[in-house]
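We modelled the chain as a single entity of 154 amino acids. Its sequence is:
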Amino acid sequence: MLSRFLLTLVMLVALAPAAPAAMVDETDIDIKTREIAKTLRCTVCQTENIWESGAPLAHQMRELIHERVAQGQSAEEIRAYFLSRYGDYILMQPPKHGLNWLLWAGPFAALVIGGFFLYRTLGRWVAQTPPPSPEAPPSLDDQSRRRIERELHT
């Protein structure tokens, strides 16, 4: 029984049409185009790079990058072209110069400053809190004791 099953399985595999895998043969130009397009922001979508965007403008920008790569321009030359037309906004990762340093360092500086103020405030609270007294807590009066006993028995 097992041999019949294995024989059938082997025949199915051997007789199955050899379907080629869905492989895309990318050229160097396509690879460079994709790498450059992933670093540029789609001006329509604003949260996607132009490689992943489906906007018509992003498609035109990808074609322009492909043409410029085919002409032999470097990635930096192509980025410089887009920077000259759209400014720093076109870059998915803004450059670290000028006021953009605030974007990069601002959150960390705020975290450090906030931690410093939290440390000072907690230090003051601890300093203002009286130390625990070594005395025993005051004893309950008769009325409180009767109330507790009444509540426990109910």
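As a brief sanity check on the tokenised model: The mean pLDDT is 84. The CA atoms of residues 61 and 82 lie 9 Å apart.
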